[in-house]
Design brief:
227 residues, alpha/beta, Rossmann fold, 2 domains, 6-stranded parallel beta sheet, 9 helices
Length: 227
Amino acid sequence: MTLTPPLPPIALDPEGVVFDMDGVLCDSEPLWADARFAVAEALGSSITIDDFHAFYGSNTLQWSAGMAKLFNYPDPAHVARLTIDHLLNAYRNGAIRPIPSGIAALHRAAARGPVAVASGSPREVIGTVLEILGLSDVVREYVSCDEVAGGKPLPDVYLEACRRIGITPERSLAIEDSLAGARAGKAAGMTVVLVPLDGAPSSAGADEYADVILTSLDQLPLAEGGA
């Protein structure tokens, strides 16, 4: 049996909770990779796994510009559209892989106070994922890095999510799995709860920025009747 580590009071009774999506609510990194590799092939080019790793935390303008440059392709917006459409098609055809412990934790958090999702995915992708996961009526607000000045590790997406649901960053939790996300939550002044994905390059080094490190969000009970 895995023992729950001692948790600081704020992790049990925060004012609000903001969840990352990819890697926290669903294991989507392989699907993003598939989409980018497919688009590279469709455009007569190629992309390596190291190239893919460089896009962690980026917003759509950033990663599409990076892909277009790699492909020597003149239209980043077309690269973005092809990638997003490939991803959405995979999700709608059942390829999405939910993370049950993350979904359960979101339900617990929503039962006691404000919750939001702050993700590097485009807004239409976030909305689609939340619908497929049955969370559309649970999550009050969701924010894409496309809606703010820059992607993670900048704090903008977390600060905006906190603003939209009316919570104080310093009294709230950011739930993350990645280095870029943990840095963003920490820069926003939030308490960062990290659940790294086993073997995922995106999680490497994230523990340096985390206030709480768990092996599963089942270890985050949250107090009932909180904020």
